[in-house]
Amino acid sequence: MKVIRVKDQIEGGLAAFELLKEELKAGAKVLGLATGSTPIEFYKQVVASDLDFSDLVSVNLDEYVGLGSESDQSYIYFMNEHLFDKKPFKVSYLPNGLAEDLDAEVERYNALLAEHPVDFQILGIGRNGHIGFNEPGSPFDGLTRVVDLTPSTIEANSRFFEKEEDVPTQAISMGIASIMASKTLVLMAYGEEKADAVYGMVNGPVTEDVPASVLQDHPNVYVIVDEAAGQKL
Ligand code: GLP
Question: Which residues of the chain have pLDDT under 50?
């Protein structure tokens, strides 16, 4: 794991953007993307750049069950707003939160991930150490599946919703094994509420109790942290 310390989210977004440019030069064709407040500055850098994604494929980590592109809290809405409307890819995949048959949707997603192995994956981290929506206890060998969100994640994500009852209780998420299959991973974390999760990820034991700790076993991971998120390292 290479830890990169930055002043703030803007500098972190720039650092991640520089890593992306290197990977594109090296031939990356499939980008793994994440939502949440963490990667917003990174997407701003990308949008302001002259990078052209019209020949690239993107694959997102997760989507809430029950939300679609019409809902401004869905991850497809977030991606359209922050990236895809401004920098279209050849094709962009997200799990379909409105799929009637969730098992079939999970199967579809695992098949497309097998067809488009991710070269460069952006990640955030939850306060409890989750990546994607792989909550504590998620199996390290897990592929895409339907997951139940923990009360702490529902509470953390409720800041984006009108009220906590509006937060979906399930999501479709790429599994830990799917995430670990990416050639390069860039995880960003900002703010003191991420400090414990960052410590567990970097210095703690590799355990399913702290899903992000699995990244210690990956050969090519960059962790970008501001002072607050990195204060316990
Ligand atoms: C959600 C997402 C994660 C994200 C995490 C942190 O639960 N599924 O992909 O990393 O929240 O979000 P934020 O970046 O807003 O702190």
Answer: none
Give residue 98's pLDDT. 98
Residue 130 domain flag: yes
Return the SS3 of 131: strand
Q: Is the CB of 157 under 6 A from ligand 1?
A: yes
Which domain covers residue 14, as residue numbers? Answer: 2-223
Residue 85 lies in a domain: yes
125 lines ligand 1 (CB under 6 A): yes
Ligand 1 centroid vs 44 CA: distance in angstroms?
Answer: 17
CATH number for 36: 3.40.50.1360
CA atoms of 91 and 106, how far apart (whole Å): 18
What is the position in ligand 1's atom list of the atom closest to the CA of 190?
16
**Measured in angstroms, how far is the CA atom of residue 86 from the centroid of ligand 1?**
22
Q: Are 223 and 187 in contact (CB under 8 A)?
A: yes
Residue carrying the six token digits 């379909």: 96
pLDDT at 127: 95
Cα 82 to averaged position of ligand 1 atoms, centre (Å) = 15
Backbone angles phi, psi at 184, to 5 degrees: -130, 140
Query: Across-strand partners of 108?
Result: none
So what's the pLDDT on residue 78?
97
Ligand 1 contact via 132 beta carbon (within 6 Å): yes
